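Section 5.1 Outputs to date
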Amino acid sequence: MIGRTFALAFRNLARHRRRSGVCIGAIGFGVVALILAGGFAEWMIWMERESTIHSRLGHLQIVKRGYYEQGVADPYAYLFGEQVVDVQQISELPQVRTVTPRLAFSGLISRGETTVSFLGEGVAPETEAKVSKEVVVSAGEPLTSSDPTGIILGKGLAESLGAEPGATVVLLVTTQSGGVSAVEARVRGVFHTAIKAFDDAALRLPIPLARKLVKADGAHQLIVLLADTEQTDEMLKQLRSLIDEKKSGLQVTPWIDLADFYKAVVDLFASQTGFVRLIIAIIIIMSMSNALMTSVRERTSEIGTMMALGFRRNEVMQLFVSEGVVMGLVGGAVGAILGYLLALAISALGIPMPPAPGMDQGFDAEIRVTARLAFGGFLLAVVSAVLASLYPAWKASRLQIVDALRRAV
């Protein structure tokens, strides 16, 4: 029975090629629009995720418990020695690419008559470079352990000081004992990130120089970078079991718990994609429903003849719903294929984007088509087509045989 119904549906659609083509085209266009819009949102989310991880956060952070809540007010209370954590053991885990320490502090930086405040990070240059791919040195050279007094400045901070690579600056901080400590350093380079506010105040220097400046040992954070972001949850469990958070007083925090801006981006694009999906579904339902209602009016005598020959009302309804299903399947498949090919072509060309709020650098966006997105577009096409066919199918099944046959005369 199902096979006969779908065979008849195919034949009916073939008889009305123009109408069927318009319906399938509307469905395909809707799926293409959804894939392109959703793929753009997917790429923006993916880019924001990777940018967040590879600029400052890493995949996992090991800190003293309470550091994120009270560390700014009392940073020296949250230092811990590297001997507390077996860095070598963590580095040898299969998914771990690198483990690098950071020491955070703040103070004043002076050049000539100009003095401004700064937020500093002492880092291990070689291992930090693997984590901070989005910290781009746009002028001069990056940090290196072979230059123990070389530092790099955020672009905005460098402009405030009028400092270029090669300039000499003085760093002044308050130590743990309440005293004042200062060192002279040379600017090796100027960097920028995706966050302009960070570039306006940040500087980085080798961690030995940072420890000498603040007169304290240890680090505030151990940043763990993984080979694959999808392994974050699994590695989080492993690290928590290795470190034993209760006994050590440390905590392991995944990047997602620290990425408030990323969460806002995800929520924004999810809302936009959901709205686009709703609009596309409405367009498909309205266009198909109108076309199928026209088909019912034109085929009234045919429907009456079918029922006179023994077709039941539910069979008539199944026939029209089957036509909707077939158009949904064909339109969804065509739309998914065209959407994927268009996404590849557009991504190859790139989509020029202006700087986002808080950024001072533009970028070229792409369209990222995932299996979930493509299947979602295909499923939307089929479901919308079925919904669009229900009312016309019901109207066809409620026709009276005598009235329907009378129209054939």
